[in-house]
Each structure stands twice: as C-alpha cells, then as structure tokens.
Design a protein that fits this description.
Blueprint lengths: L1 H41 L3 H11 L2 H4 L5 H30 L3 H18 L7 E2 L2 H17 L24 H12 L1 H11 L1 H7 L11 H24 L11 H11 L6 H23 L10 H16 L1 H5 L19 H6 L1 H25 L6 H16 L7 E2 L1 H9 L6 H17 L8 H11 L1 H4 L5 H7 L1 H16 L2 H21 L3 E7 L5 E3 L6 E2 L3 E7 L8 H12 L3 H20 L14 H5 L6 E7 L8 H15 L4 E5 L3 H9 L10 H4 E2 L2 H17 L13
Length: 714
C-alpha cells in the first residue's frame, strides 16, 4: 500500500509538472503569435501600400471593371435627372441653411465628385440634405447674432455684376462665407482624420450608429421636419419676422407668425397656393403612375422656371414687394482656410452633425447594398462622408449627407454606379458657370413650397403611429419623445434625448422583464406560460420559472421578488418562521410539557415544521432568455440554491447558453470540481422535469432518504 501510494504521488507530481510546462508553452506560443501579428501589421510593403490606396479610393477597384455598354445609359439618365432635381433643391435648401444659393450649389458639386472617388455604395446620392441644412442654419444664425448682425429677415443681396472674382461683397455675405467655410461637421472629421489609427482603433466611430434605433431616427426626422416646415411658413405668407434662435424655436415662430399675419403679402400667398397645388398634384400622380414612368417628372424645375419667368416679366418684386432670391454669382470663389478659432466654437455642434450625417449615409448604403446584393464598408463610408465635408469646407461649402429621396430617384432611373454622381456634378457645374444669374427673380415663397412639399414623407409618419403602437408600445413612446423634443426644444437636444430615452427603455425592459410560471403543453415535451395559453398541464411537485432578461445587478431584486411571488414562497421568511417555531418548541419542552404548543406529540413536531403551503419539491429555472450573468447574477442563483436547499427544495437550471454556463462555472455554482453539474444543469426543461420526477420516485421507494436517491440524478 505504501509503495502504491508513493507511486500515485509521483504520478500526480509528474502530471502536474507536465501541465505547468504545457501552460508555459501555450503562453509563449501566444506571445509569439501576437508579436508576429504586430510585426505584420506594422510592416510596410509595396503590396500593402497598394491595397491601402485601393481601399481608400474604391473607385480604383471598380472603375477598371466598368461595363460601359451595360451601365453607361442608366448612369447618364439617372445623373441627368438627379442633376436637374439638385439645382432647385440646392437653391431652396439655402433658405434652411441661412446662406446664399451659390453655397448649396458648391456643396452639391463637390460632394458628388468626392463620393465618386471614395464611396463604397453604388447607388447612394450624397449632397445637401434638409435635416443637415437645418442644423447648419441654426449654427449660422447663432454666429451671426454673436457677431452683431440682424436676423430680422432678408439680408441685403450681394453686390457686383454676378462674378465672384471681384471683392465687392457686403459684410453679411462675407461673414456667411466665413461660417460656411468653417463647416461644423468638417472640424469633427478633420480631428478624426489627424488621428485615424487611435480613434478608429479604439472607438471605430461606427459604434454610435448602434444607439440610433429606427424609432429614434424616424422621430428625429419627423420633429426636424416640423421645425423645417415652421421655418418656411413666413416665406409662404411673405411675412417679415425674425428668425428665432434657441430652445422652443417652433413655438416662438408660430407666435410671431400669428402676430404678424396681417402683414401677409397677397402676391406671395397666391403664388404659394398655386405652387403647392401643382407640386402636390404632380407628386401624387407620380407616385400613382411611377411604374409606368421611365423617370420622375422634373416638377420642381418646371415650377422654378415658370415662376422665375412670371416674377421677372411681371416685376413681382418691384410692384408687389415679393421677396426674391437675388443675384446668384457664377464661377468659384478662391479657396480659403477655415478660421481655427471659430472651429473651436462650433466643435460641440459638430458632434450631432457628424453623427446624423454618418448614420443616415451608412443606413441608406446598407439598405441599397442589401437590395442589390453587394457589400459596403462602414468605416470607408465614414471617411467618404468626412472628406465630402473636409475638402469642400475650403471651398465655402457646408455639411453633406446621403438623402433618401434622391437615392430612390437615382435607383428608379437606372443608376448602376457612382458615375451617375459625376454626371449630376456636371449639371450643377453648368449652372454654376453659366445659368445661375437666371434665377435672380425667383421668389423665395416658391423655394419654400418646394421644401415643404419635400417633407411629405417625414410628415406622413404621423399616419403610421397607430400601426406602430400596435406593433410595439415602447418603440412608439421613443418615437413620440424624440419627435417632441426635436420639434419643441431643438434638433440637437432632440437627438440626444432620443438616444438617452431609448437606452433607458432598454434598461427598464431588462430591469422589469416578463416573468412566468410554465405549464406543460399536453402530450408534448414543451412548456409555456400558463397565463398566456390554455389547457396546460401542471407538473406535480415542480415549479418552472422563466425570467426573460439577462440576470445582472440592476434586476436582481426584481428576479427574487418575482420568483417568490409566483411560487408563493419566500425561503428566507419560511426559514425564519421555522427557526422561531423550533425555538418555541424547545422552550415549551424545557418546562416539562411533552406536548407541543399546538397540542401535538413530540413525534409529530417534524410534520408540523413542513408548512402546508409548500406544494413543490423542485424549482426549475428556465434560462433560455437569460443571455448573460454578471457576478451579482451568479451570486443570486447561488443564493436561491442555498435558501431552497434549506427547505429541502431542489433548484435545477435548464436551457443555459454557453456564456451563462461559463459564468456559473467561474462563479463556483457547481462546486469546486463541477461534481454536481450533471445533477443541477439540463439542456431542456423536460429533461429537468423528468429528472425531478425520477428523483421523487426513488426517494419514496427508499423511504424518503435523500442520500439514497442520489443515483437517480446521474
């Protein structure tokens, strides 16, 4: 025996040393692998440099493979249609941004060219976007006020003969140039571009889009649309009121409108009514017969052309005092370096601009990539949109983003690649170089009509509220809160409120999730909520508890309260009650009375200690909806295991995923060597129930001795 014991000891020592050496070798191998990967990632070879350039400019990959005969006509058609749509939209959205129309044309031109070079989506149309223009306009108005300029209404038109080569600009126009050149979004992406490895490696920056749910985006777009609509109403009536700033702009603007409604310009009111009727009718007919039309009707361009001719030859500005766009110069302004001191002031405004621009672009890119069976790279999209803002900021442009309406038009007119974006840029360039002065007499109320009619899609979201509420009440609440905050407070605050509120809703859902006791579906191995389904069978002596959320520190108490409430048993209170009863029994027996306080004999005391309300001997916890456990969650399960064990009630876990099992192992739930794991963990609820019933039969067969029934769990 001694030799055998010594031999066994030596074998154990040898195996332990072998395991230690093996672990050391594994650590060394891991270290070598990490160093090799680090050396490989830091090395610079011609092939890696080529791949970097090709990835940074995706056009170098797909343009050489361009199928000219197959793609060219669709790209030309879609490019021409988008270019025709871009011109009136660019002029109209300049009202939202509080800038001259020429800057919107610059933005549309540069954005299409740069995205052609750097974008990974074949169909997305990048350029001016109503929400982005609105957010830029709020920053512009604030900076103008800080500089002492008046925002009461129309700024004086620029001086000169239409050429940007002379320097005779008014102070207001010059200051507008300064603010546009500083482009809030470009500052954020500019910093990102300086430190791409650090910020992209740590943050990946695409993580922000995960917190913008569909409800948040829809609510934000609808609330911002109400703000845009409100900002354009004064142009419809020709009322001269100050542009409201700060929180509550929507309410203040409507108050000012009703106060000054008597000053409405009859010419602008009539023009607005006619334009809205024409535009809405054309849009409705276009939607109705879109399958029969090869390309959308250029209604906006027709309305602008006719309105400009009527305004010019009817002298509506001189005779009726109707507000017009004014001189739109031709050519390009010389590049100008943004003022970095002003960049610091707008850095905070850059964050929501960058987030909204990036999220809308990536969302649209992914949607159309999925539809047409190709892939995009989200990080490259961030760089593409970033450079669509960085480079044009030196050429007096403002922030850009992908736009859903133009993208839909682009795909419906046969777009195949971003060559269509180059065609659109050429159309805009034609306007910039030659045709811009022709829009001098265009009434601002016409531009306002175009903007308001373009908001139909976002405003129609109100009709979807009942259906949204029927599908998910919590998402509807997120939509309402985000929309209300965006409209009544401000767009930036609304976006922040929407993100925070949606995250709070997720926390609330996990803090107070659904809990249920399960019953067996007759003649099956499946179990469901006995309150949701009828004719379920109750398993005798077994309670099956389901918790539909991760178990972590925030919902620990709710887990325990729900468990105690549904099983009608709090093990802590029951244990305290038993201790109190035992204490009274002992005190009674010390006095020499062999009868208990309840009149029972001593032999009957044990029966009295088991309360009648405990109608189960095993608790099965359905862990199928528990995605993870933290330390508090593991300790909670260990706590109920101990508490119920004191009452001779077994606790079994069923349907645990691998991460939950791993957390339980590391937390010591199954013992030091996992010796009890097979007895406590089951892959299905039915297996746990069968094991419990088998254990109960063997316990009764052996006279109720739990120690003898242990073999029934293996």
């Amino acid at each position: 025996m001694e030799r055998s014991l010594e031999a066994t000891t030596m074998e154990n020592t040898t195996s332990s040393c072998f395991l230690m050496e093996r672990k050391a070798l594994v650590k060394i191998n891991r270290k070598e692998v990490m160093l090799a990967k680090l050396r490989k990632s830091c090395s610079c070879t011609p092939q890696k440099l080529k791949n970097f350039v090709m990835d940074f400019f995706p056009v170098l990959r797909w343009l050489p493979k361009y199928r000219c005969k197959e793609y060219i006509w669709g790209d030309i058609m879609s490019g021409l249609v988008i270019g025709i749509i871009l011109v009136p939209q660019a002029i109209a959205y300049s009202l939202l941004a509080g800038l001259k129309p020429i800057y919107s044309l610059y933005t549309s031109f540069f954005a299409n060219i740069i995205y052609f070079l750097m974008g990974t989506s074949r169909h997305v149309s990048v350029g001016i976007f109503s929400l982005i223009s609105l957010m830029v306009g709020q920053v512009v108005d604030r900076e103008l006020l800080l500089a002492g300029f008046d925002l009461n209404d129309d700024a004086p038109p620029a001086l000169g003969d239409g050429s940007l080569q002379n320097d005779s600009f008014s102070n207001t126009t010059a200051f507008n140039l300064t603010i546009v050149g500083i482009n809030a979004d470009s500052w954020f992406v500019f910093v990102l571009f300086l430190f791409p490895q650090v910020l992209m490696g740590i943050f990946r920056l695409g993580f922000v889009s995960m917190y913008l749910s569909e409800s948040v985006l829809d609510g934000f777009a609808t609330g911002a649309s109400l703000t845009i609509l409100t900002a354009q109403v004064k142009y419809l009536f020709g009322i001269k009121i100050p542009r409201s700033q700060g929180h509550g702009m929507l309410v203040i603007t409507w108050i000012n409108i009703f106060r000054n409604i008597s000053q409405a310009n009859l010419c602008d009111v009539i023009t607005s009514a006619i334009c809205i009727v024409v535009l809405v009718t054309a849009k409705e007919l276009g939607d109705k017969y879109k399958h029969k039309l090869k390309f959308p009707l250029p209604t906006e361009l027709v309305v602008i052309a006719v309105a400009t001719l009527v305004s010019h030859y009817g002298k509506l500005n001189e005779v009726y005092g109707s507000s017009v766009s004014g001189a739109i110069p031709t050519g390009f302004i010389p590049p100008k370096v943004p003022e970095f001191n002003l960049m610091l002031r707008v850095a905070v405004d850059a964050l929501p601009l960058a987030i909204v621009s990036f999220v809308f672009t990536v969302s649209l890119s992914e949607m159309f990539a999925k539809k047409y069976a190709y892939t995009i790279r989200a990080n490259q999209e961030m760089f593409a949109v970033g450079f669509c803002n960085i480079i044009p900021s030196f050429f007096h442009s403002f922030a850009t983003s992908a736009a859903l309406a133009k993208t839909l038009v682009k795909t419906s007119t046969g777009c195949q690649t971003q060559v269509s974006g180059v065609i659109s840029a050429m159309v805009v360039l034609l306007v910039l170089l030659f045709l811009a002065p022709l829009f001098y007499s265009l009434q601002k109320c016409v531009l306002a009509c175009i903007i308001i009619v373009s908001l139909r899609g976002a405003l129609r979201k109100f009709r979807d509220v009942p259906a949204r509420y029927h599908v998910n009440k919590m998402d509807t609440l997120v939509w309402v809160v985000t929309m209300s905050a965006s409209a009544l407070v401000s767009t930036e605050i609304g976006l922040l409120v929407g993100i925070v509120f949606s995250m709070l809703c997720i926390i609330v859902r996990t803090q107070r999730p659904r809990t249920a006791l399960l019953g067996q579906i007759q003649d099956t191995n499946f179990y469901e909520d006995d309150l949701e389904y009828k004719n379920l069978s109750t398993v005798p002596k077994v309670k099956i508890f389901r918790f539909e959320a991760p178990l972590y520190y925030a919902n620990r108490n709710y887990f325990l309260k729900s468990l105690y409430r549904l099983t009608n048993l709090d093990p802590n209170l029951e244990a305290a009650r038993r201790k109190k009863y035992e204490k009274k029994e002992k005190q009674h027996l010390k006095k020499g009375n062999h009868r208990t306080v309840n009149g029972l004999g001593i032999g009957e005391t044990t029966l009295q200690l088991v309360p009648k309300q405990i109608d189960f001997q095993a608790l099965v916890v359905d862990c199928s909806s528990i995605s993870f456990l933290d330390t508090t969650g593991v300790n909670t399960l260990k706590e109920i295991l101990k508490d119920y064990k004191n009452l001779n009630i077994s606790v079994l876990l069923a349907c645990c995923n691998p991460s939950v099992i791993d957390s339980l192992k590391r937390g010591g739930y199954f013992g030091r060597d996992f010796e009890c794991m097979q007895e406590m963990l089951f892959y299905s609820i039915h297996n746990a129930v069968l094991s419990t019933l088998s254990h109960a039969k063997q316990s009764s067969h052996w006279g109720g001795n739990p120690g003898q029934a242990k073999a029934g769990w293996d």
